[in-house]
Amino acid sequence: MSAAQPTERTVNLAVIGLGKLGSPLAAVLAGTGHRVIGVDVDPALVAAINAGRAPVREPGLQEAIARAGPRLSATTDFGTAIRGTDVSFVIVPTPSGPDGVFTNRWVLDAVDEIGRALRETERYHVVNITSTVMPGSTGGPIRAALEEASGRRVGETVGLTYNPEFIALGSVVRDLLHPDMVLIGESDPRAGDVLERLYRGMLGAEKPVQRMNWVNAEIAKISVNTFVTTRISYANMLAELCEKLPGADVEVVTAALGKDSRIGPKYLKGALGYGGPCFPRDNVAWAALARSLGTGAEIAAATDAVNRRQVERVVALVRRLREPPDASVALLGMAYKPGTPVIEQSQGVMIAERLTEAGYRVLLSDPLALENTAAALGEGVVAVSDPASAVAHADVVVIAAPMPAYAALRAEHFASRSERKTVIDCWRILDPGVAAVADVIEIGRGPAMPEPQSAIRQNSVEPARLRALPR
């Protein structure tokens, strides 16, 4: 998208929170023609924005900041930001508590600061909660905090909206510019109109905008994530089943499922489980909410249980193949997904933790997250920047993330002068030629079907085969 110039539709905006999601949001809003001032309590984040540097690592963020140019600035002073703006986006963390429920502590702190600043101006202002919150939060403690701090009534001289973004680390900038829909929970039509006009100007008239009350928007946001994770766990359940049946292949099965218009192909990839800062906690929070309301959330609980099982079944497979302490395992892929250094709830990291505890020598490799992983796991692991080197020094190799660097590995990288290596390809991305020099186990694929005796006699050389899962 080319840099937009200020027009009569230019809006003065504040973005509260300049972390992994807030910085891209501020840059994208400014890059589409609005004047944006970011606010954060961390002076380093503020200084980076003011210097034109990306304060966090995210693809496309530096370019978005460059497009924004002088329309993007930052401060640690809430008053300066709020008094001169029309809409504030609150995008601060809402960490999970011990019970799994999201906590609003930082949202309430931000709303209190915004409210105090609004006392000093008569300007109409929309407070837009972008952070994911539990159902009942916006109309409950958040509204109360805003009214108390500002001395205003929501729906009269101040608007309050809930407008979560559907974005993922590693593609935040792209997702902000190309959402499937815009979700707006509104205190009143005036506040909702302000948000809709803002998004229409950014995204065009054809983008679906769903407007509703606060609680329906809060439910919808978490429902999207829990439904997506249910599809992931369903595909992983199919992968486990296919591994037990000769000739079964989860890729073939899920491809057929995806052709059904009632299902579709997205997120039907039987492999390892989901991770990251959002997906794992959403099902836990959903189940906790259901319990508090006296209703059931069995699907959310089952989705979470299947996801947790993926780590343990890979660890169990490694243990059946080789026993510690003499065996070494190379784990390729520590980030929770390609394109990001984030390791929160990463399946690869959790597998590394279990294997280290079991006494294995564990070698790690990742194009972006190696430093984060080594710091998190400590001295029990060996960080190797080159995946080919990690493979060369391992007895067992686990492909834990579908990264292009691992798909590019070839047979010569796995060849060994001594004992054949065993490779667990969780994502089925390796070149088929690797099976000629190593024993390759593909998650989600069962053992080969027995060939008819006549076919065996006709072939003088039996083709290389993928190794069946050990029983």
Strand line-up of the largest beta sheet: 3-2-1-4-5-6-7-8
**Number of discrete helical segments:** 18
Largest sheet: 8 strands, mixed
Structural class: alpha/beta
Q: Quick check: average pLDDT?
A: 91
Report the strand count.
14
Q: Overview of this structure, please?
A:
There is one protein chain. 42% of the residues lie in helices and 13% in strands. It has helices at 22-31, 43-50, 61-68, 78-83, 105-118, 138-150, 172-177, 189-203, 214-242, 250-259, 279-293, 298-321, 347-357, 370-377, 387-392, 404-407, 411-414, 453-458; strands spanning 12-16, 35-39, 72-75, 87-90, 125-129, 158-162, 182-186, 209-212, 328-332, 361-365, 381-383, 396-399, 422-425, 439-442. The strands form two sheets. The protein has an eight-stranded mixed sheet, with helices on both faces. Helix 13 links the parallel strand 9 and strand 10 (361-365). The model is unreliable at 1-8 and 454-465 (pLDDT under 50).
What are the salient characteristics of this protein?
471 residues, alpha/beta, six-stranded parallel beta sheet, 18 helices, 14 strands
Summarize the structure.
With 471 residues, the chain is α/β, with parallel strands linked by helices. The chain is 42% helix and 13% strand.
Helix-strand layout with pairing:
Elements: E1 12-16, H1 22-31, E2 35-39, H2 43-50, H3 61-68, E3 72-75, H4 78-83, E4 87-90, H5 105-118, E5 125-129, H6 138-150, E6 158-162, H7 172-177, E7 182-186, H8 189-203, E8 209-212, H9 214-242, H10 250-259, H11 279-293, H12 298-321, E9 328-332, H13 347-357, E10 361-365, H14 370-377, E11 381-383, H15 387-392, E12 396-399, H16 404-407, H17 411-414, E13 422-425, E14 439-442, H18 453-458
Helix pairs in contact: 1-3, 5-6, 9-11, 9-12, 11-12, 12-13
